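Team,

Forwarding the record for the chain on the shared tracking sheet. I've put the sequence and predicted structure together so nobody has to dig through attachments.
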Amino acid sequence: MAYIIAGIQISQAAGIVTFWLIWFRRERSDLSLPPGYLAHERPFVWPDSVAALLLVASAVGGVEGCAFSASAGIAAAGMLLFLGIVDLAYFMQNGMLKRFDGALRNLLTVGCILATALISGFYYSAQQGVRGRQCRRSMTIYFPASMC
């Protein structure tokens, strides 16, 4: 199961990185975008980057059997849940789910974000009983009890 969750997390992290690479390289002269879209979207590169890093750390740690993977997975799931809800609210508020040109893409984007958040969150919540375990590759990660 850890490999399946890790695959989902790595896929989502790769999707986040790909989205931002394409987003910054594409010209934004589309008149169908709502006013303020660029100002709204641009700051999300930072929390998305942190979420992607947490997803990768959680995936690698989960496969290696490291205790920190549960905490990283839950943190990433919380971030993705928040970011997905913000995107969904913005899309709904600005009619971006009604327009044919991008509605399906926007809905799939939000769906993938929320699905990864829920899958990771539920999986790692169940794994929270595992703490202070030694990783398989001879690195030991210890967190204070307050962090676990």
